[in-house]
Specification:
- The complex is a heterodimer of chains A (120) and B (480).
- Chain A is mainly α and 120 residues long.
- Chain A has one domain.
- In chain A, 69% of the residues lie in helices and 2% in strands.
- Chain A has helices at residues 3-24, 29-49, 60-99, and one strand at 115-116.
- Chain B has 3 domains: 2-62, no CATH class; 64-305 and 398-441; 449-480.
- The longest helix of chain B is centred in the first third of the chain and has 61 residues, at 129-189.
- Chain B has 12 helices and 14 strands.
- In chain B, helix 2 runs antiparallel to helix 11 and helix 4 (129-189) packs antiparallel against helix 6 (279-291).
- Chain B has helices at residues 2-30, 64-99, 107-124, 129-189, 193-209, 279-291, 293-296, 304-322, 348-351, 376-382, 399-439, 443-478; strands spanning 44-46, 49-50, 55-56, 59-61, 212-216, 222-226, 230-234, 237-238, 242-246, 261-265, 324-326, 332-333, 338-339, 353-354.
- In chain B, the strands form 6 sheets. A 4-stranded antiparallel beta sheet of chain B has the order 5-6-7-8. A two-stranded antiparallel sheet of chain B has the order 1-4. Chain B has a two-stranded antiparallel ribbon with strand order 2-3.
- Classes of the chains: A mainly alpha (120), B alpha+beta (480).
- Chains A and B meet through helix 1, helix 2, helix 3 and strand 1 of A and helix 1, strand 1, helix 2, helix 11 and helix 12 of B.
Chain lengths: 120, 480
Amino acid sequence: MHAASIVEHLARVRSQLDQAGERLTSPSTDALDSCTEDLASAVRQLAQWQPLLVAEAGNPAALEEAWRVRRSFQRVRALLHGAAGFHANWMRIRGTMSAGYTASGEPGPVRYGSRVCLQA
Amino acid sequence: MANLLASLISSAGTLEAYGRVLETAQNNVANASTPGYAKQRTELYALPFDPQGGATGGVRAGKMESSRNEYAETAVRQQNTAMSYQQQLVDSLTPLQNQFDISGNQGIPAALNSLFQSFSAWATTPNNTATRQTVLDRAQQVAAAFQQSATALGYQATNAEQQVRQTVDEVNHLVGQLAHYNHIALQGNKDDAGLSAQMHATLEQLSQYVDVTATFQDDGSVTVLMNGETPLLLEDKQYQISAGLTQPQDPPPNYPNGPAAMQILGSDGTDITSKSTGGQLGALLQMRNQVLPSFIGNAYQQGDLNTMAQQFADRVNQILTSGNISDGPPAVTGVPLFTYDATNGTAVARSLAVDPTVTTDQLATISPGPPYVSNGVPLALSQLATPLQDADKISGISYNEYYGRLAGRVGGQLNDATDGQQVQQSLLAQAQDLRQQYSGVSLDEEATILLQFQQAYQANSRFITVLDQLTQATIDILQR
């Protein structure tokens, strides 16, 4: 494998992760579905090239790009956890507001029935 | 008759609820361009309808959505606090990094390299006066470089101190504004949407400086705590915080004359410094009380710059005084070259100097041995550049490497802060987006979204786990 190709390959993976990160800054359910595709593609590519990386051990340009990939991944992870945390916490608060606590001290299940909603 | 009355009461309640919906819509239009204003909606809940059991049905207005909006506001404030912390760290660490030149072209490394070269030249021509004068000149440059670095870092500490004081003033000012808004709310204006917008905008501003917990009360006032426990505002009573310098006494300081630490006090005089970890204030305290003292010292540490200056000066002086200026008899021993304030370990770098009374003739050249070496002293001094013995090293490495580590430490901290800042910027944007996304969504729509989101998150989280391993494995393989 040429050194340039591994760097280019890693850069493509990074670009996909950055794209996923951009989507996650506005985490609608559609954005999350698209994000899944990006992440799946990034996993496939990294796994596919992994056995060939040994030949590039010690290549500083490849290592630098690998660190960039790692940083992009960490951003995606933080954003995904941020969005998930936001919803999970609200689910818990909403559960306690509508159904109190269960016998084990967990928030009650969110209830959806018997509600009329008028848009003002 | 009872049923008729119940129906009338139910109708009246329903009309009142619809009236509130219309008022809300009117308010939204009126405040369309008010900064900090969040669109309001009134959620209506069906009441049980069972005429025989006395349940008359109808609707009532709910509070859950306003709770959700407040939750979203809190999420934005939390991310704002975290982002401001990282931003301030980057702003403070950037000038610090500029102090540590690792190119070897200026500052301490350049001065050290020049001095080492002059030692080598002196070893070649030990009795040449011009070469000896060069040694004295270069030694003065080393001392000046340490002084300049220590002074510059001291200036940064002073600057951080001023910024801490300004930040505390700004916190008190913003909390004062909130106290004023609370006063207005407590006078019966709790439903004033404009007032609510001002309160939220001020809280968001405040969250840049410190980690705040804001709880809105039924009377419309907001209770503000710092770091979840220090009261800043209860109803319309403000609790001011203050900043000052302190020299800790418990445990007894190792360096009683070391630079004082900054302290944040609650309104009752309680020391809340260790709890003031968020926002700009947290980052400034981190710089002032942790990062800078690791270089210039405080009550409990000498600071790496002082340690380096002292060990270097001591080692050079030791080599010079172990040599002879002349064989005699009687033999004339060498004199120390460097001086510094020995009464204060944290002042070594800024007080390092070349003894002005030392002349070129007083530089010892002869190593009396055994074995006797006529140019043994300059040879030993030149070994400091690439040391072989432990006595010529500092923490097991050369002086240049040690300085490189100090520079690397700052660079590493700055890189971490820059990465953290970029992530936090995205998280803040995300929190603002979520606040916006949910402001016009009904609770029923939201229920569907939450379920969809839960599924989408589970799908993504599987890939996150795999990517964590793959990206780390990629780095591990490439850096072998």
